[in-house]
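Just curious: can you write a single protein's sequence together with how it folds?
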Amino acid sequence: MIVLAKFIAAIVLSVAALTALAFVFSRWEAARIAARYPNIGELTDVGGFRMNSLHWPQPAVADLPPLVFIHGASGNLRDPWGAFFEPLKDRAEMLFVDRPGHGYSERGGAENLTPAGQSDAIATLMRKKGITRAIIIGHSFGGATAASFALRHPEMTEGLLFLAPATHPWPGGVDWYYDLANLPAIGPAFCHTLALPAGLLQLRKGITHVFSPNAAPAAYIDRAAIPLVLRPANFCDNARDVANLLAYVTKIQPRYKKITAPAIVITGDSDDIVLEEIHSRGLKRDLPHSELLWVRHLGHKPDYIATDLAIAAIEKIAGKPRDLESIVREVEARIAPRT
């Protein structure tokens, strides 16, 4: 019995030592990540907490209405900024936002656990920046936030562009680490110890999976500052968002038919992250003024792989004549697997 007790004590001490080491490493590495990817935006009080955004003012000659970009899960404002800023900087006023709890935005209250509260925060931020109406562009999780924005703030919604959106109830759940990070007590402990070192080991594999079957741009990880989500507080907030999304869209999806803004949905037939036949086809069915662009050989990142198509969709929402189906065919020809 004494030997067994000593053995158990040794295991407990070893686990405690490894946990402490992981905690120290996570704090140290989180500081290094923040130094590597400093804030390029500006913090604005939106009522009890601060949201971070990058606001590009209206150019002298703008041919598009203001554009608001909402990133997906595990992202931050640098993700859409890296895809859309250069081609659109001379054409429109743009607002790139860190959703609450992401990038450099503070989390705020419990209302920000869902896209509803996050969309309200974005609306407040827009007003603070002098933007009264805009085309709202949402990728992945940002699609649910964009849909909620249109429901809650129709007077501010010029139109909607959904890029590989996550907006409808789906079978099954989410990856185990999201559920684990969302547990009381255990979740924060996981976020502050093991999540960051494990995430670093899986980072490149994860990016490859997100873009698959398309190739990720060579500098994408740094361009989009993806490691920011591995910082403990960000990881926990991101996990809570993802873990709560299914229940939220199950509740809100029946209301989508009330959205009157024009909408375009761009999705790929090879998306392994979001079930496009459920979400994108669901939006086409539910939104009364919507168009679905279904792109063969396209994965979960139309913002980077089909940027030209996304910009043409923005132009069409703005009232410009665009033959989007012909551009779809051009994109498909460009990304088709080589044989």
Notes: The mean pLDDT is 94. Strands lie at 42-45, 50-56, 67-70, 94-97, 134-139, 157-163, 263-268, 290-295.
